[in-house]
Amino acid sequence: MRFFIYLLLLAVGFLVYVRLLERRTVFCPHTDEITVSPADIRLAYEEVEVKTPDGFLLNGWFVPAAHPSDRTVTFLFFHGNAGHIGDCLDKIELLHELGGNTLIIDYRGYGKSEGRPSEEGFYIDARASYDYLAGRKDVNRERIVIYGASLGGAAATELAPQRPVGGLVLHATFTSARDVGKMLYPFIPGFLIQTKMDSLAKVGRIKVPKLFIHSPQDEVIPYEMGKKLFDAAAEPKEFLSIDGTHNEAHVTSQEAYMAGMRAFLKKYFGY
Length: 271
Fold this sequence. Notes:
Layout lengths: L1 H25 L19 E6 L5 E7 L10 E5 L10 H9 L3 E5 L13 H16 L9 E6 L2 H8 L7 E5 L5 H8 L14 H4 L7 E5 L8 H10 L4 E5 L7 H4 L1 H16 L2
Parallel strand pairs: 3-4, 3-5, 5-6, 6-7, 7-8
Antiparallel strand pairs: 1-2, 2-4
Helix pairs in contact: 3-4
């Protein structure tokens, strides 16, 4: 009997360990003070607050295109994990150079946004951000392109089938949280990981044009995950392979990145 009690205590202890590890790995909120803004790179912007259906205020920036029109593409940008909107000025600048509007929002618990992060909250924040953006008079909702980078790709893939959008860009994102968990912690059985973020199961339902961007040198999310997502996606779809690390590939391969983005926008948006 004592053996079974020890075994039970060991199992409970291991489960608690897995839950704590999962919580610390899936969401790493960056809550440092945001000391920069698009004005630092000479871009006009509007600081916005998005209220979620469950009562939290999300902080973000809306950066208008230099020459807006009813044909302007608007990027709804979902950033990666260990950061906040203040860490994304380089990406915002590139999207601006492409001629689009950009809305970037911090998820609950990140930056100045209220609340604590969770998978369901993550998806609620994505929907609320879209609904705010689609309600603006200066945005053509048929030309909204959801852009998910790394962790943000899970929000983008969840949102795209639920709202009318023009396109989807997945940059260095993963197949599922369980796949990442098995990669990082092979000693943990997959069924113990509660977080799903199963983009692989969702991407086949997304009918709008899709661009997948990944680097073979990505040291955080394997290139093979990006290819697996692409293979599972329905047409129309494009794959852009660039060089560089997880967080720097769009800078290291800026010329190839911008050319690929422009080709995607021209092909599917005449832009």
